[in-house]
């Protein structure tokens, strides 16, 4: 806290202008600036007071995606802040270190507000005393990367059209941390990247251009049970992953970039290593199974059925109604949710299912154990058409929380329900 100030951070949703293309600017939204927002940090076990202000011409909310807070300050559609209004919220990090994020959640305009630029990262930092030797120097060897895709019109103006993109806006231009064609200079042999799929709808599959492996160390809610060596990694909208890339073995002439599964370059690295020792941090192995036999055997107590496309999306046959409580669950009591993505005549589509106020564990996908990179805490899970995914869900705090599809246009179309935790 600065002297004379009764909060640690101030986050202002405001209008701005961004020059995505040289010499042409377009209207955008940002937090404290023209586009996106500052990275907020809370140390594991600590709390911060955040002053949130809405300087837009329309109502908005501030949702802390992945943070286990009371329903009251979760920034769901009930938490609307009118233009000109402010509020102070206390965010407590009573959960493991993780890469979380924040964005608006206003009923009917979430997709458009995010599209225009409202998103930021919210990091829970490891305690300084923690034994992890993971890279932690923010902006040096610990880099946040927000992946999004956008549509522009012929005049290079951001072009949001909900009716044309009712199944989720798929942009033709990729932006990373708000920049088209970014490039990153790498100075440390081992780099930690925090990847956030901040797109309205698109799935991203990441690979390295030389086909090499990298190491996934964390999922949405913190470190994985065990690090996973992999050649590719898919994130659905709103999912996060932390990865380590070892640059020390590259020869001088070799170039490296992060590419997508179509081979399109997302982020080229400009490697100019300083003389830091090229030793990889020590990795960990789980000493207990990810799920106990008891957890695996727990019976299903909540059924969720995702269905439909475009404006016809529903959960359990219903559309969102702010005045209806769909489910109830007792605070601190663990239940098993079975999420079924019911196919339609066309086959159906992927829905990334997200629950507020909790970090859950995936028990199974169609009866099979989750992949190693899903053996960690999660708040969003990609559910393929026809698939049934079982989740182990506990809410540590009370209040009303949303659960929904994180294709933002589906959410705005009512593919959302609410649970009261009592
Ligand atoms: Cu990213 Cu309802 O949230
Ligand atoms: Cu959320
Ligand atoms: Cu959906």
From TrEMBL:
CDD domains: CuRO_1_CueO_FtsP, CuRO_2_CueO_FtsP, CuRO_3_CueO_FtsP. InterPro entries: Cu-oxidase-like_N (IPR011707), Cu-oxidase_C (IPR011706), Cu-oxidase_fam (IPR045087), Cu_oxidase_Cu_BS (IPR002355), Cupredoxin (IPR008972). It holds the Pfam family Cu-oxidase_3. The keyword Oxidoreductase applies. The keyword DNA-binding does not apply. Residues 14-128, 299-421 form the Plastocyanin-like domain. Keywords: Metal-binding, Oxidoreductase, Signal. It comes from the Bacteria. Belongs to the multicopper oxidase family. This is Copper oxidase. It comes from Planococcus faecalis.
